[in-house]
Structure formats: structure tokens, C-alpha cells
Design a protein that fits this description.
The protein is of the alpha+beta class and 136 residues long. It has one domain: 2,3-Dihydroxybiphenyl 1,2-Dioxygenase, domain 1 (Roll), CATH 3.10.180. It is built from 3 helices and 8 strands. The chain binds zinc ion. Zinc ion binds next to strand 1 and strand 5.
Length: 136
């Protein structure tokens, strides 16, 4: 598998509006997209820094993955996403190396990316996402 760059860093927040204000008014970034991912029960806001993005995640449901994360750990870094050139073969490769997968098959994430999560139990505690942008 070939990782090309860090696609984004996912950060769990309680309130998207408050957090956007911090990233824009303090760090000087510009939010270029807000998107709801119903599947994941989140509303996301995106910022770009070079090739990498910051993805803020606000839960739309306390029972969703981000709702549960915030309940347990509070706000903070939720996952790290790597861009890969071929997600299907990357999934097969990590699977064959005994890594526990959350997604055995790629699915659609925010921004129309094909994504799959690796379980933090197999990745040194870091919830890891692989993404491929097939739209470019
Ligand atoms: Zn993500």
C-alpha cells in the first residue's frame, strides 16, 4: 500500500459553531464546507492546510460514534486519516496482516471519499482511517 499524505485529522467537538470560530478567528483558517454525514450521525466542517484538512465532527445523536466518544473522552482528536492510492487493495493488505478492521469494505465518507476505518486496538490506540479520492 502507498500512503500519499495525511488526508485529514478528525476532531470531535461539542459545538461546531464555537469550534469553527476558534479555527477561523484564532488560527486564521477558512471553513470551506459544512456537511452532514447521516450514516455517521455527524455534522462536519472542513478546513485546508496544504494538502491536509482538519475535519471537525459534531454529533447529531448522543448514540452516534462521536456522541459516545465525547461522552467517554470529551472533545479532542478522534481519528487520523491517511490518503491511499488504492483503498480496496490497502484494506486487503491490512486485513492480511492481522489488523482488526471496522470496515471490511470501503464506504462513502464526507466529501465523497471512499473510506475505511482500522480498529484502534490494532493501531496503537489511534483510530485510523484510510481514504481514497476517486473523484479527482
Ligand atoms: Zn475522517
Amino acid at each position: 500500500m502507498k500512503l500519499t499524505h495525511i488526508e485529514h485529522i478528525g476532531i470531535a467537538v461539542k459545538n461546531l459553531t464555537d469550534s469553527i470560530s476558534y479555527y477561523e478567528n484564532v488560527l486564521g483558517l477558512k471553513c470551506y464546507a459544512i456537511e452532514e454525514v447521516k450514516d455517521q450521525k455527524v455534522k462536519t466542517a472542513f478546513f485546508k492546510i496544504g494538502e491536509t484538512k482538519i475535519e471537525l465532527l459534531e454529533s447529531t445523536d448522543p448514540e452516534g460514534p462521536i456522541g459516545k466518544f465525547i461522552e467517554k473522552k470529551g472533545e479532542g482528536i478522534h481519528h487520523l486519516a491517511f490518503a491511499v492510492n488504492k483503498i480496496e487493495s490497502a484494506i486487503e493488505e491490512v486485513d492480511s496482516k492481522g489488523i482488526k478492521l471496522i470496515d471490511k469494505k470501503a464506504r462513502k465518507g464526507a466529501e465523497g471519499l471512499d473510506i475505511a476505518f482500522l480498529h484502534p486496538k490494532s493501531t496503537g490506540g489511534v483510530l485510523t482511517e484510510l481514504c481514497e479520492n476517486k473523484n479527482k
